[in-house]
Amino acid sequence: MEPDEIFRSIADVDGLKRGQYTPNNQGKYILDTNPSWPETVVNGLYVSDIRARIEEARRAVLAGQKSPLYYHMARRQMNTAILAKTVGMTVFRVKRHLRPEIFSKLKPSILDRYAHALVVSQEELKSV
Amino acid sequence: MTLESTATGKPFVHHHAAHCESGVTSAFFRDKGVDISEPMVFGIGSGIFFGYLPFIKPAGMTITTFRSQPGAIFRKVAKRLSGDFVVKTYRNPQKGMDELRQVLKTGQIVGLKTNLYWLTYFSERFRFNFSGHNLIVLREIENGFRISDPTLEHPVDCPAADLQRARFARGPMEAHGYMYYLTSVNPNPDLRQACIKGMKDSCNLMLRIPLPIFGIRGIRFLARKIISITEKFDLNEACRLLADIIRWLEDTGTGGAGFRYMYAAFLQEAADLFGSAELASLSEEMTAIGHDWREFSLVATRIIKQRNKSEETFAKAGGLMLNCANREEIFFKRLQKVVRKLKT
Lengths: 128, 344
Hints:
The complex is a heterodimer.
Chain A: H1 3-14, E1 20-23, E2 29-32, H2 37-62, H3 68-75, H4 80-87, H5 91-97, H6 100-103, H7 108-118, H8 122-126
Antiparallel strand pairs in A: 1-2
Chain B: E1 2-5, E2 11-14, H1 20-31, H2 38-44, E3 48-53, E4 63-67, H3 72-80, E5 84-88, H4 93-105, E6 110-115, E7 131-141, E8 144-148, E9 156-159, H5 160-167, E10 179-184, H6 191-207, H7 215-227, H8 229-232, H9 235-251, H10 260-274, H11 277-306, H12 314-341
Antiparallel strand pairs in B: 1-2, 3-4, 5-10, 6-7, 6-10, 7-8, 8-9
Helix pairs in contact in B: 1-2, 1-3, 2-10, 6-12, 7-12, 9-11, 10-11, 11-12
């Protein structure tokens, strides 16, 4: 799908409108709620980028290259640095937990910290 | 415009605005009985700016900002219009939420700095990991808060847990539960004096910061970078970087063309206030600069969308940006001279 189509498909559903200033016929500025074309394109591009990143993460997990934590991190638009700050661990430790064999041996208390930070249940955290 | 009420039943009128922080500040003053529009707030608070910060990357995106740093507009406007305000940050999220509830109970409306990703009333296209969105909390409701987000047409509800996460999200540019509100204002503020201060400050910010990444110098720096971008990156990466710039220019609540239209709207109001024909002609010049920025974003968007097939080139986009820099330099130098002649 083209980026502006993605934008329209979301904007039509949510009905949220943002304003921008445009001069009217008399040259007086008014707040217009129609998005400009560049805005629709770059925003649609951004959304499709994020979606692609999440899908890529999901595939990596299904292929057994990464732990499900990787997918949930991508879903919350985080990177290891942000996730590490949110759960209060070192980046090194979080990166280690992205490995499937290490993730599968994690204690429930650690999983709970991740679940809390990513706002998912422990069961959800173990699946994609 | 939508009518709402605060915790003590005092009426509050929600106005739709283009930008979050100037909209919030304008709402604060309107709530206290000083009717001041969003562009006016933007001008008085010296909102217009340019900065290219490649070293801060929220959500993997370099920052190209077209306004001054978050929080500055509110502080400057409150000071210049002689209002008393409170600004607070918290280490403990629970304490931050408790204090918010206490302040709301007194009928005060409260401004918050939040992370866009965790605000669930937004849809997918708004939500990205950026801790710099301002909104107003009107009152506590069952399981949440009534929120007047100036970038939206109508007030919305937000669950308490989501708001807490949004306020205390970790990552680049952390908000630390940043909370602010006006306690009192001068009912008859000296608008003329404030406008002059605001315009002078803007000129200084745009022309006199001796660093290559801010103001007019910053625009030139970025423009030269765009011209030679394909030497350093492959086409896909170059398009992605260009798309990031266009997002900051058009998509992040800028009121169109990176706040340039909003500033033109401010100059229009200021021209009426001072009865100055020079300010009116400067407003028209700013509108023209806004059109130039819009032209730049159109060309850049064509490059992004059509990739190789497009006739537009990075050199052309960069050239348009250099043109904007030249025009803005002339504009701000002229503004400097005009401001000196204005009488309070």
